[in-house]
Amino acid sequence: MKKKGRIKIKKIFGYLVFNIIFASILVPFILFWGPFESLKIVAVGAVATSRHPQVVEAFLSQEEISRIMNSNNYQGSGNRIDLVSTEVITDKTSGITIEDIKGQSFKGKVMLIKDPTRVKLAVTKEIGVTGERVTDFVKDMGAIAGINAGGFYDPNGKGNGAFPDGLTMHNGKLIHNNVGDKAVNIVGFDDKGKLVLGKMNAKQLEEKNMREVVTFEPNLIVDGKPAITGDGGWGIAPRTGIGQMADGTVIFVVIDGRQPTWSIGATLRDLMNVFEDYNAVNAVNLDGGSSSELVYNGKVMNKLWNIFGERYIPTAFVVTN
């Protein structure tokens, strides 16, 4: 009887394992080849802009991916969702306020920093070898808070955040450049603490007295005007962004995602809408996905979706004491 019971349990276990494996194989085909166009748009937008775009490329041609990604940009602006924000921390001594935010499909954090000159860029000490965690950047800089900043390229396939992509500048010095004389969309602060966005090359960074710079895109708000059409074409995912109000206050936004019971994530339009609600005159998207993180007083304030914890990245914007 015991032997028969063990055999039955093994059969049930084998049946469950088979169905899990079968479902895992079937899901991508349903997403990318199925009849559900809206589901395909969301899936392609999310995966194609993640660190595994090859998954989409294995199922769809580059022409089809481009069609889907670009189709989002021509859709209507959609319904504006009222943002609910609740103040959770106010540190008058440091001039920092942190608020919880909630939209239709996401939850996140907003940090307001009154003095923009306190926002600096932290760069991994071992460029070309490995990146660092945001908590490490904050600690190393003797800072009080920080968020992930620019993206990285991965020539060795290690995914360890060793190489910051584009132009990277700290304290007015160019730290890393893998684009030569090419102009790229920079995200940075000049010597007056003003957030500057737009395409520049390395020479122009010096001419415009830039101090702390990374490279990423797209811009969300430029000179008070929204820059995103449709939903932005990048799907739904965890997001990080940085912006600035007219009075100089810097806005950090981190939105959780890929957690169905907590927060699915946000589109670029959702992220832009958050900055609009906080009266940003300039705002830009930063690296998202598993990089999205907000740290305050040594603690990770948002809910990371990566089961392995903090990601190793090349750069972070930190708030110095």
Your description of this structure?
By secondary structure, the chain is an alpha+beta fold. The protein is 25% helix and 32% strand. The protein has seven helices and 20 strands. The protein has helices at 2-33, 37-48, 54-57, 62-71, 134-140, 202-207, 268-277; strands spanning 84-91, 96-102, 107-113, 119-123, 143-148, 152-153, 163-164, 167-170, 173-177, 184-190, 195-200, 210-215, 219-222, 225-226, 239-245, 250-255, 280-286, 294-296, 299-300, 315-320. The strands form five sheets. An eight-stranded antiparallel β-sheet has the order 1-2-3-16-15-17-13-14, covered by helices on one side. Strands 4-20-5-18-19 form a five-stranded antiparallel β-sheet, with helices on one face. Strand 18 (294-296) and strand 19 form a beta hairpin. The termini are far apart. Mean pLDDT is 87; it is low at 72-78.
Radius of gyration: 21 Å
Biggest sheet: strands side by side, in what order? 1-2-3-16-15-17-13-14
Number of helices: 7
Task: Identify low-pLDDT runs.
Answer: 72-78
The residue-averaged pLDDT reads: 87
How many extended strands? 20
Structural class call reads: alpha+beta
Give the overall form: globular
Distance between the termini: 70 Å
Percentage of residues in helical conformation: 25-40%
Biggest sheet character: 8 strands, antiparallel
Strand content: 25-35%
SSE run: HHHHEEEEHEEEEEEEHEEEEEHEEEE
What's the helix and strand layout?
Layout: H1 2-33, H2 37-48, H3 54-57, H4 62-71, E1 84-91, E2 96-102, E3 107-113, E4 119-123, H5 134-140, E5 143-148, E6 152-153, E7 163-164, E8 167-170, E9 173-177, E10 184-190, E11 195-200, H6 202-207, E12 210-215, E13 219-222, E14 225-226, E15 239-245, E16 250-255, H7 268-277, E17 280-286, E18 294-296, E19 299-300, E20 315-320
Antiparallel strand pairs: 1-2, 2-3, 3-16, 4-20, 5-18, 5-20, 6-7, 8-9, 10-11, 10-12, 13-14, 13-17, 15-16, 15-17, 18-19
